Amino acid sequence: MDLSIIIVSYNTKALLTACLETLLLSAKSASGLRWEIIVIDNASADGSPAMVQRQFPEVILLQQANNLGFGRANNVGAAQAQGHYLLLINSDTKVPKNFINQFWHQALQTKAQLSSCRLLYPDGRLQPQGGALPNLFNLFFWQFFLDDLPLIQVYFPAYQRRSLSYFQADQTPGWVSATALLIQRQLFDRLNGFNPAIFLYGEDVDLCYRARQLSVPVYYFTTPSLTHFAHQSGSAVQAIIGEYRYLKYFFIQYRSPWQWPLAKVILKSGARLRQGLFGKILKQYAKADAYRQAYRLV
Prior knowledge:
Elements: E1 3-9, H1 13-29, E2 35-41, H2 48-55, E3 60-63, H3 70-80, E4 85-89, E5 93-94, H4 99-110, E6 114-120, E7 126-127, H5 136-143, H6 150-155, E8 180-184, H7 185-190, H8 203-213, E9 219-228, H9 236-254, H10 259-281, H11 285-297
């Protein structure tokens, strides 16, 4: 088996339907490629499993009794997968017909063991993703809205890349999003898959960090591209809280002990700044509350 396509779904029935329709069309168009599609359902209550069984009998469905989170559910799928490569892809995506063929050949030509591709919003705008692995410098610049300044970008690559010009060429960033992640099975096994300690948000940074520790480069390709309906399988508010939770974990787990107290001050200060910005100025009270929770979390 060449490629195992793995999708984790949690109450995303309509999105999953569209995702599977486009993936099947793309997979069947990839000449000579042996593939399989595996859906891991995280105890959805919206009829997703029945829909998969009814409309997509060729798809392997793994139903879970509980919500395992993103990383652990992908690990379940990978344990069943037969492919030499794993394509981990969100249920809130749609791919063009040539997506799998292009992504597959990009990985083979560059010998990429771990890569992602261009993401687009539903209106066709480019969706930023990935960046440099977290450190005290880029954490500070990110939290205080300084990481977009040209001089800062030259010397301190941003933790969250937002400059659209960066995504106009293939890159080797510190980390890429797990929205669409193509990884060699052998590498996934060497890394023991996703970190089971992380339920949701940050698992892609964690996986890429551990790959970089093995001197494995991480690739971003401008071709192919897919449409990502961002935060449809997880809310933007929960993403904020989850990111702060993971950054706390990252600095405690992977950085020198003296760094976490400094990172904590930076994160708390940044959360307070954003709480005021979104609450008092922008009147986006849900986000303001998310940053209030993030402040207390770290």
